């Protein structure tokens, strides 16, 4: 296989579109609405996932997923912004070469691969015509404007209960934002605040069981802090 010929991998890079607020100043994000947040420039997704893309929580969660799915070290995963969503991921090798996965923005291929194998899905498209994409962009993530990424790395470092708490809090906070009970920037900010609150009063569990997850959910439901 190609990967065997290239040698040992060094890291992987996953891409994010940057969502609908890529070119917004951070101060403008404080007043954005759920209706604005769900208008993704590339993907046609439901409200929850679209808002996750707008905050870049989706990418933070994908970084955590990649660690556990592929048994990677925290330092072996990174992310960049690629607004056109043609390059979806790269494998970076120790010899300096990178291989990229390119596809039009279409989740049918990766989803079908879970059930039928990588080559079983028959796409109506003939493939990527690269001459149609002469202006592909790759941009570093502004960690000040999108703090979810840095928080995701902190969650990976903590491990144990932290990834579940991170995800569970996000589910709750996105729903509150949709209901206009909190502001857009509160989604990530309150996630961090509530995680600190949890670990300030509870011990971590390295290998949590289902009962531990249920107990965590109950604790969060009864102790959620919204700043008021």
Stretches with pLDDT under 50, minimum 5 residues: none
Tally of distinct domains: 2
Distance between the termini: 57 Å
Number of helices: 10
Order of helices and strands: HEHHHHEEEHHHHH
* Gyration radius from CA atoms, angstroms: 19 Å
Walk me through this protein's architecture.
This protein is an alpha+beta fold and 228 residues long. The protein folds into two domains: 2-132, no CATH class; 158-223, no CATH class. The protein is 45% helix and 11% strand. The chain contains ten helices and four strands; from the N terminus they run αβααααβββααααα. The chain has helices spanning 2-6, 26-29, 34-37, 47-55, 57-70, 108-116, 148-158, 162-178, 186-201, 210-223, and strands at 9-16, 77-81, 87-93, 98-102. Strands 2-1-3-4 form a four-stranded mixed β-sheet, covered by helices on one side. Helix 5 (57-70) runs parallel beside helix 7 (148-158), helix 8 crosses helix 9 and helix 8 (162-178) crosses helix 10.
Short description:
By secondary structure, the protein is an alpha+beta fold.
Features:
single chain; 228 residues; alpha+beta; 4-stranded mixed β-sheet; 10 helices; 4 strands; globular
């Amino acid at each position: 296989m190609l990967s065997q010929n290239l040698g040992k991998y060094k890291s992987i890079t996953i891409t994010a579109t940057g969502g609908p607020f890529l070119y917004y100043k951070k101060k403008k994000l404080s007043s954005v609405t759920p209706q604005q947040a769900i208008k993704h420039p590339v993907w046609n997704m439901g409200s929850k996932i679209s808002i996750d893309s707008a905050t870049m929580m989706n990418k933070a969660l994908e970084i955590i997923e990649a660690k556990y799915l592929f048994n990677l070290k925290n330092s072996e995963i990174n992310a960049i912004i690629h607004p056109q969503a043609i390059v979806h991921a790269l494998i970076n090798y120790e010899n300096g070469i990178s291989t990229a996965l390119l596809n039009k923005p279409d989740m049918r291929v990766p989803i079908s691969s879970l059930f039928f194998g990588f080559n079983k899905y028959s796409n109506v498209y003939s493939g990527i015509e690269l001459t149609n994409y002469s202006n592909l962009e790759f941009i570093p993530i502004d960690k000040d404007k999108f703090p979810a990424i840095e928080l995701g790395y902190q969650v990976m470092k903590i491990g144990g209960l932290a990834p579940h708490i991170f995800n569970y809090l996000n589910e709750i906070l996105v729903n509150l934002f949709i209901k206009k009970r909190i502001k857009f920037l509160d989604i990530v900010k309150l996630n961090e605040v509530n995680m600190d609150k949890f670990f300030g009063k509870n011990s971590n569990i390295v290998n949590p069981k289902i009962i531990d997850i249920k107990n965590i959910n109950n604790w969060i439901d009864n102790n959620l802090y919204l700043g008021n």
